[in-house]
Structure formats: C-alpha cells, structure tokens
Amino acid sequence: MKPVRTLIVDDSASMRATLKRMLSADPDIEVVGMAPEPFAARDMIKALNPDVLTLDVEMPGMDGLSFLERIMRLRPMPVVMCSTLTARGAEVTIEALRLGAVDYVTKPSGTPEDIERDAHLLCEKVKSAARSVARAGPQRLPVQPSVGARGGAAGQLIAIGSSTGGVEALFSMLPALPEDCPPILIVQHMPATFTRSFAQRLNAECRVQVVEATDGAQVTPGTVYIAPGGEKHMELSGGANGRIKLIPGDPVTGHRPSVDVLFHSVAKLGSGAVGAILTGMGSDGAQGLLAMRSAGARTLGQSKETCVVWGMPRAAKEIGAVEKEVGLSAMPEAILKACRETVKVGSA
Fold this sequence. Notes:
This protein has helices spanning 13-24, 38-48, 64-74, 87-99, 112-130, 166-173, 192-205, 259-266, 286-294, 312-318, 331-341, and strands spanning 4-9, 29-35, 52-56, 79-83, 103-106, 157-162, 184-188, 209-212, 223-226, 232-237, 243-248, 273-277, 298-302, 324-326. By secondary structure, the chain is of the alpha/beta class. It folds into 2 domains: 4-130, Response regulator (Rossmann fold), CATH 3.40.50.2300; 157-341, Methylesterase CheB, C-terminal domain (Rossmann fold, 3-Layer(aba) Sandwich), CATH 3.40.50.180. The strands form 3 sheets. It has a 7-stranded parallel β-sheet with strand order 8-9-7-6-12-13-14, with helices on both faces. Keywords: Chemotaxis, Cytoplasm, Hydrolase, Phosphoprotein. It comes from Sphingomonas pokkalii.
C-alpha cells in the first residue's frame, strides 16, 4: 500500500513543523509539501497532486473556509481541518464540515502524553480521509410533507447515530424534515465545545427545533436533541414521551457519548422506534441498532455509495442490524415512512 501523500496548509511555521513531525512518524503517511497560505497551497496541489490536505481554519489573506469552498467546487479532495478548541474554532469547523471537509482535528497542545495522543489521532484521521469519498458539500433535499405528530406517527421516536461525514449528512437530512415529525435523538461524535454550536447552526436551517440535549428534558415532537460531547452518554428514559438522561460512564465502543448506549436505551420502545445509522468510521452503534431491530424497531443504514466513510453502517449491516440500506437523499422520507408504518406497542 502506497503512503498517503499529504499536504499541510497552516500559516504558523511552528505548527507546520509540528504537524509534519507527527505525520512523518507514521510509515503509511508521506508529507509531500507544506504551504503557509492558500495561494501557495493552490499551486502545490496542482504540482504535487496530494491524497489528503490538512487545512488550518483561520489564516491571513484567504481564510480556510473560503479556500475549502473553492477546493470542493473545483477539485473535490479529502480535507482534514485543523482547528482550536474555542467557540470560534467550533463554529468555523462545523461550517467547514458542512462544506465538505471529511474530518477535523484539534491543534496539538498540552503534555507530552497529550501530544502523543493527538499525533495518533491525526495520523488515523488522515489515513481514514484518504479512504473516504470527497463530496462538494451538502445537497439540499426536498422538504418532506407533514407526517402529523398527532396522527399516524404519534408515540414514535427516531434515533440517529453518525460520525465522520455525519455533520454534512445531517445538514442535508434534517432541513428536509417537517415541523411535526416525531422526536429525534442524535449522537454525532464531536467534542464538547462543538455540539452547542452544531445544534444552533442546524436550528437556523431546519423547520424542526434543534437543541443540545439537557439532562431531564422531556422529548417532544418536532424537536431534535443533539447529545452533548464530553463526559456523559445520552439515554432515553420513560418511553417515547419520556425524558433524556445524561449519565457519566466510561467510553463505549471508543466513544462518549456512544451511539450504542443511545440505541440500547431506545430499543426498549420496541416497534415504537426507528433507528438510522449514518456515515462514520468504526463500529459504534452496530450492536445497539441490532438490539433495536431485535426488539421490533425499524432500522435503516446509509448506503455505501453516499457515505463519506462506510464504517458504522457496514458494521451494522454485517451483523444483521440494518433492515434496509438507503441513500442519503432518500433517508428523510425512508425514516418518516418507517414511522408511519410502525405501531406503538407500549413504552419502556
């Protein structure tokens, strides 16, 4: 297997050197160039034809977002954003993911142990990006018809899990849902500083209300609850009209919050729930989705062709957890159709 040819774009000379040292330590990655700003990077992309680009978020001249938008329009390629863990960094990184960046890493800092952990994560994300499918930002899906929250979909609940590529997918899917859709609980893997900004950005573009979930909140139709990143998992307690529980605990399937934890709690609703597993690296959510299907829930997996990374849906499919594979553009209607076709058989 050939090394992943990587171009680093960052205005800080010291950060470029740090990233190069981290990436070059992995024998499966070759740093083919470093650019201090987007205009130099543009020429180097043409000359070097890299497999993956690491891109700073905030740079003088042309900022990372403007450059990313041009890249994804003119020459789509896997891009990993390199950001800081600040409110501003979160907002810009979320917009970058919406525009088509495959993934993001936080800029390395802290103790030697922190740096080592960051280096491992950076290398894994660059290698994963090289295997991903670059896309030119989210497509605008048609708004779905009203499902009648007090009609055939009453008592239903939707649970969704996603990771790498999930931000872009959710920006495509959620605006297509009607304002009276059943409650939706989502675990999207991202840091604690990102989830509130993510919910606010989605809320501005959707007919449904999108909020960062809080402990004890009662779930209601027409509302999407994004699990907060950080130290707790998100569970559903008390049935389709129950409450959200944010519980401390060790990472599950390598993540906290974990899709598996959410799905296992929703499985108690039986046929009163619909589960969907979207693009992402790894296997988080596979066992939980299987539990949902075994309990009578309808379960959907995003198709390989429309995933940025076909990891989580693949793992779920391989163990029989996915009832039906669906392309991203068809996912909103498939979810609503599954809600209309299921019958509430009781609550947890």
